[in-house]
Amino acid sequence: AKVSVRTWSRTRRLLLWSECAIIERDVPTYTVINLKPLSDVFAIVRDGNNPQLFTIEYVKCGMRQYLSTERDSLLATLLDSVRSSGNHFVSIEMSALDRGKRVTPLFSHAETKWNSPCSNYSPRQQVFNLNAHIWKTIDRMRLMFSLCHLRRRKPFKVAVQRFNANVSYNGLSMSNPSDARDKLVQSALISLLEKDGDSSASSAAASDSSSSVSSVELHAQFGAIRRLVASKPGFNAFGLMTGVREKLGKKVVKALRRADSGVTHAAIEMLCALMQPMHDNYDLKQEQNNKSALMASDKFVDALLDLLAINLSRGSGALIISALLDFITYALCAPYSETTDGATFDKLLDKCGMIMRALIEEGSEANAKHMQDLALAEGAFPKHLLTALFTDVNPGARGVDRKTLAS
Q: For the whole model, what pTM was predicted?
């Protein structure tokens, strides 16, 4: 059902989408009521209070609100369709965008301008003159300074909201990186890992600091971290900077313990950005190091796979399942698996195989038949047979397919 923002009335609608557009049709007459390109989708807001309500924010034409009993399954399919169309700026949010915190229209993706007049100021002067210059020039360096320094004047969550509102979900675009700019990104990343809400982690050592913030605020923090690690300096900082891996791991574990679907999805999306670089001219060695660091802890990997198995058995958490499948794809599937360490690859493959076997043996007969039908529809057996018999390029993949056919 569609919810009218003006009157809050509900009207039954069919929400469909093709390879390039979202189509809204009238139920009795099947007439097209609304049609929007997938490229115009800015964000999808998943309401945390109403389990059926979601909002699609468009770049040019406001927003549309809908109600659905199968909300998460619908959103997982919609998100995959939008990204498959080439729109990588879209994200799942827990609150609508505050337009007052964004310096440009939604259809304008601001480029990084490091040589703007504001760059001539010292860091302290940039902070105090932020409000005066933000409307005169689009300068993302000042947005990163807001993460590190603006908390002296405003709550930290406001700085995070301002950063997320102005930086695209696919990360910071830096045409001419330098050491000074890398330090800005890294300092912003450390700031996010060390603080939860308005209290530092050190001051809340006696209690779980993540519980001091709401799920919406924690979701926004993971969104900011994801935007930072999608850039080259943030991606490299995970493996090069001391303490980043441990702090990030603790933050993710605390988020998973909340059992909040929105926060869990945001945390896994951030992990996927560390598994596969979102920027250009990336270093394959750094990608391999990040993968090895993320999957070095068997306990952490088991927790992610248990989360996948639980949601699959319950038939819930479609967004979480989709994000976890992306995580596994970046580790096991070609061409992403070329940077996965051999021992890590075999270990994760065995664990995923155990999950598949448990789903088939312990699940219903209908689920097992459905999985067989999907495998036949994808031509899985001929593909495995071809790789096992005739592929010489990738010996690892050949060995895996031979084991699959033998079992």
A: 0.81
